[in-house]
Amino acid sequence: DGGITQSPKYLFRKEGQNVTLSCEQNLNHDAMYWYRQDPGQGLRLIYYSQIVNDFQKGDIAEGYSVSREKKESFPLTVTSAQKNPTAFYLCASTLGTGGGYEQFFGPGTRLTVL
Amino acid sequence: DAKTTQPPSMDCAEGRAANLPCNHSTISGNEYVYWYRQIHSQGPQYIIHGLKNNETNEMASLIITEDRKSSTLILPHATLRDTAVYYCIVLRAGGTSYGKLTFGQGTILTVHP
Questions:
Q1: CA torsion B83→B88→B94→B95, rounded to 10°?
Q2: With contacts defined as CB-CB under 8 Å, which chain B residues touch A45?
Q3: CA dihedral B80, B85, B88, B94 (to 10 degrees)
Q4: For the segment A40-90, what is each residue's pLDDT rounded down to a tens digit?
Q5: A15: distance to nearest CA of chain B, Å?
Q6: Residue B23: which of B76, B67, B74 has the closest Cα?
Q7: Does A93 touch chain B if contact means CB atoms closer than 8 Å?
Q8: Looking at the complex, does the CB of residue A94 fall below 8 Å from at least one CB of chain B?
Q9: Which end of chain A has fewer surrounding CB within 10 Å, N or C?
Q10: Which of B32, B87, B99 is nearest residue A94 as measured by Cβ atoms?
């Protein structure tokens, strides 16, 4: 089945630790995105990548880093510099960045900092 | 990208049509209207999108007014599993929007028996 997978579903981390969230897609999509969602809020864009080996900061990139070494993979690292990392993290992908393309989302990773 | 306005909540009886309105009065000619929904603790699910014409798929229908300043998402026979937050989003084709979806507060649709 084609789709986007994120792992793990739940993640717990101690303060001061870096943690990496996985996102994989087998849809052959060029563009991939990371969003963050806080309780009762909409999604906010962290990073996006339109093509392999290229990525750009979104609206709330501070304290996060990404890589795009393969088309199907777009991991997100939450660093210790992120002041309030507890949130629901969503990965998405789309075939193109113009209008008219569906953006597909993964099931999300819920990160809790202890 | 144009801003959207949606009612914060709506109710619908199971089996009836759910009509969810969205206002996007500042929409420009090359901006699409997208609808997504999010069931609690899951990733958003794409529903439908359109530019000018009305659209229909297996999930829903999208009615866009002639002046494109508003639209309505129609779920023809709502079920309890349609209870979710519904987001109306306007997305520009190409340009600097790079496909970013801007999610507002959405409409909480509650389908009751």
A1: -130
A2: 100-101
A3: -110
A4: 888 899 999 988 999 999 999 999 999 999 999 999 999 988 889 999 999
A5: 24
A6: B67
A7: no
A8: yes
A9: N
A10: B99
Average pLDDT over residues A1-12: 88
Q: Look at residue B48 and give its three-state secondary structure.
A: strand
HSE-CB for A111 with a 13 A CA cutoff: 28
Which pLDDT value is given to residue B96? 53
Site of tokens 């529903």: B47
Token pair 């949130």 is found at A87
Alpha carbons A77 and A89: distance in angstroms, whole number: 11
Q: Which of residues 4-43 of A touch B (CB under 8 A)?
A: 4, 31, 33, 35, 42-43
Helix (H, G, I), strand (E, B) or coil at B80: helix
The count of CB pairs under 8 A between chains A and B is: 69
In DSSP terms, B37 is beta-bridged to B45, B86
Question: In chain A, what is the greatest distance between 2 CA atoms, to the nearest angstrom?
Answer: 41
CB contact under 8 A, A48 and B99: yes
What single letter denotes the amino acid at residue B45? Q
Q: Sort A30 into a burial class: Cβ within 10 Å, 0-12 / 13-18 / 19+.
A: middle
Candidate from B31, B46, B100 with C-beta closest to A45: B100
Which candidate in B46, B68, B86, B92 is best for mutational testing of the A interface (most A CBs within 10 A)?
A: B46
